[in-house]
Automatic annotation (TrEMBL):
Pathway: Cell wall biogenesis; peptidoglycan biosynthesis
Subcellular location, principal: membrane
Full protein name: Probable peptidoglycan glycosyltransferase FtsW
Source organism of this protein record: Luteimonas wenzhouensis
UniProt family annotation: Belongs to the SEDS family. FtsW subfamily.
């Protein structure tokens, strides 16, 4: 008994390490964003009568706040986060309702998506997305047997997502609503939901999304202008046509940093939604591919970390990593696709690069959660290595102890819900169904 207590104490004293690749890629994206915001926002600030570095200073301040929040997330134990799923869900709904409170909600161009803090405005959906992905990760851990086997457990998160979508459409924010549904579907598949069973909700939701997209005249104009922006170049296709001209001017190596012409009052939102077009114009195909490569490295590393966590039965940490990867990856994909004319205009920023306080800060929080996942994964791996090493050195022993996936030690690999949750469970199947139903054991 005393020996096991001493062993547990030694394991708990082991520290983990944050993933160096994640840190490097995130820092590279954030630093690149500072440079491009400085280049893309000078003309915008001048037209509004502000100083040339007005938006750059704001961006750097928000980035500094985001880094501080990232540090808090990195030092927060995931067990503590997982303990309060109801609070996370209530926070999502409450944040989306705050914008409708008179005096607190703030409208821009007819969209009521922000709350005012006097010194700055905050877009609440950015925080709601982070809280939601953590809640969904917690839900998939608590009900991963049922999500795979029953309709009710699978439909519950879809129902929560639909409630949030209704609140987003009331603002209105069709882009974020679509993103939320896509992240929900992706996490359900990665968390063990049966792919064929999910086809029915998808088949019912797609026509509804199409109706919502075309019922508003401004959304319909965006879709039709996306098909052929040159047909109404000075009207509905103005944004996309100027974005495509900027990308075309960049050619292979670009016109040079700071030398963009389209950002000089021709390209709307050059420092936010259409900053990728400025990157392509000033740095060319080479710069655009570098940005895409950095996002691919970040998202791919996040998925790999999540997969490793699931292998070690650290399901909550793994699902959080999946959620962060899906959120950042899909938002980057949509933002770049809009700039390239592959998708209709959605009003989504490029994570860590576009100017925008809410997006920058909450993306930093998501990166902090991801780094915490990598820290706890590394610590668990070190604890397992220590256990195996001590087993191999034990006198009279027959080799190292069995892997923790069979009998996980509480401090190393056990679930955060306690030993009562260590009963056999259906593992994530990536949509292929449970064992015995089309899968090899």
């Amino acid at each position: 008994m005393f020996e096991s207590t001493r062993q547990a104490t030694r394991l708990d004293a082991i520290e983990g390490r944050y993933d160096g690749w994640l840190v490097g890629v995130a820092v590279a994206l954030a630093a690149f964003g500072v440079v491009m915001v400085a280049s893309a926002s000078i003309a915008v600030a001048g037209n509004l009568g502000q100083g040339p570095f007005h938006y750059l200073v704001k961006h750097v301040v928000f980035l500094a706040v985001g880094i501080a929040l990232c540090g808090v997330a990195m030092r927060t134990d995931l067990k503590l986060v997982e303990k309060y799923p109801r609070a996370l869900l209530a926070g999502c709904v409450l944040l989306l309702l705050l914008v409708f409170i008179p005096g607190l909600g703030y409208s821009v161009n007819g969209a009521r998506r922000w709350i005012s803090f006097r010194v700055a405005n905050f877009q609440v959906v950015e925080a709601a997305k982070v809280l939601y992905l953590v809640w969904l990760a917690s839900y998939l851990v608590r009900f991963r047997d049922e999500v795979n086997a029953t309709w009710a457990a699978m439909l519950k998160p879809i129902g929560v997502a639909l409630l949030m979508v209704l609140l987003l459409l009331a603002q209105p924010d069709f882009g974020s609503a679509t993103m939320l549904l896509a992240v929900t579907a992706g996490m359900l598949v990665l968390g063990g939901g049966h792919l064929r069973r999910m086809l029915l909700p998808v088949a019912l939701l797609l026509p509804a999304l199409v109706v919502v997209a075309v019922v508003e005249p401004y959304r319909l104009r965006r879709i039709t202008s996306f098909w052929n922006p040159w047909e109404d170049q000075l009207g509905a296709g103005y944004q996309l046509s100027n974005a495509l001209m900027a990308i075309g001017r960049g050619e292979l190596t670009g016109v040079g940093l700071g030398a963009s012409i389209q950002k000089l009052s021709y390209l709307p939102e050059a420092h936010t939604d259409f900053i990728f077009s400025v990157i392509a114009e000033e740095l060319g195909l080479v710069g655009a591919l570098c940005v895409i490569g950095l996002f691919a490295a970040l998202v791919g590393r996040a998925f790999w970390i999540g997969y490793r966590c699931v292998e070690m039965r650290r399901h909550f940490a793994g699902y959080v990593a999946f959620g962060v990867a899906l959120t950042i990856g899909l938002q980057a994909l949509v933002s770049i696709g809009v700039n390239l004319g592959l998708l209709p205009t959605k009003g989504l920023t490029l994570p860590l690069i576009s100017a925008g306080g809410s997006s920058v800060m909450m993306t930093c929080v998501a990166i902090g959660l991801l780094l915490r996942v990598s820290y706890e994964l590394d610590r668990a791996q070190r604890q397992v290595a220590r256990l195996r090493g001590e087993g191999a050195r034990a006198p009279g022993g027959e080799g190292p102890p069995p892997p923790p996936t069979t009998q996980p030690p509480p401090s190393a690999v056990a679930g955060v819900r306690g030993t009562s949750r260590l009963r056999p469970r259906i593992e994530p199947t990536l949509g292929q169904g449970p064992l015995g139903h089309g899968r090899r054991p």
